[in-house]
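Please decode residue identities from the backbone states below.
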């Protein structure tokens, strides 16, 4: 089985949950809303929504939010969290390569390097094509991914980190030819060593722009952070914005100048 079919379970919640600070989540939500500039009550699809960390705050702001995720474990947490927050979110279990909606949403978002899971670019391209179908004309796609230009400049060694009561050994790796990066996590629990592994395809902005446009979306711009920071080779993130246009062909924002 692929790593993403088993990774997002109770162990993921125990390790990642304590690492996601409320301050970081708030910054991301504020950035999403600033970049998308949506009207009140707009409809948003959160791809790989997980346990609702972003979807629920968006619903609390009055948006009509739909969350799609493959993990029933995370969706169960999301449903419970939405009930506790007294908000309505439409949760759906499914593969993000097979987005089932057409002309439905004002925005589609993919946050925290949830794009790039799959083994080849064609499968990742299907996610963008599905996002385009799901958007209304004039709707926007927001992609938040790790910046490959940043990652290849980092010499990240194995290290320990705290996750709640757990002490986890992270062993990161990078394949600059395949354009993939990942980590192996190991920790001692109940007298036994536990192991989890993940890896993702990371893109340059140039590669990402080409894929977005190949999916039939109009590339708008990209940022290097959630507060309008410029995209540079030293920015950790690429936060890209694209739009579904009625026009069958167009030039990019840069190319049209």
């Amino acid at each position: 089985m692929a790593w993403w079919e088993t990774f997002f379970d109770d162990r993921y919640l125990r390790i990642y949950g304590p690492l996601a600070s409320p301050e970081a989540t708030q910054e991301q939500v504020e950035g999403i809303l600033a970049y998308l500039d949506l009207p009140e009550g707009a409809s948003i699809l959160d791809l790989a929504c997980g346990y609702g960390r972003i979807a629920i705050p968006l619903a609390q702001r009055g948006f009509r939010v739909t969350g799609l995720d493959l993990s029933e474990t995370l969706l169960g947490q999301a449903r419970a969290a939405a009930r506790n927050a007294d908000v309505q979110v439409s949760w759906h279990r499914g593969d993000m390569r097979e987005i089932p909606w057409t002309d439905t949403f004002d925005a589609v978002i993919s946050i925290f390097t949830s794009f790039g899971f799959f083994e080849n670019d064609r499968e990742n391209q299907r996610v963008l094509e599905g996002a385009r179908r799901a958007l209304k004309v004039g709707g926007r796609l927001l992609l938040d991914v790790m910046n490959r230009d940043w990652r290849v400049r980092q010499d990240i060694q194995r290290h320990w980190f705290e996750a709640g009561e757990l002490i986890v050994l992270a062993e990161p790796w990078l394949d600059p030819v395949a354009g993939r990066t990942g980590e192996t996590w190991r920790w001692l629990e109940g007298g036994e060593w536990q192991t989890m592994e993940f890896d993702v395809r990371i893109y340059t902005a140039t590669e990402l722009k080409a894929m977005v446009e190949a999916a039939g979306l109009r590339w708008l711009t990209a940022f290097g952070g959630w507060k309008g920071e410029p995209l540079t080779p030293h920015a950790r993130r690429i936060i890209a914005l694209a739009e579904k246009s009625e026009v069958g062909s167009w030039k990019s924002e840069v190319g049209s100048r």
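Observation: The chain is about 30% helix and 30% strand.
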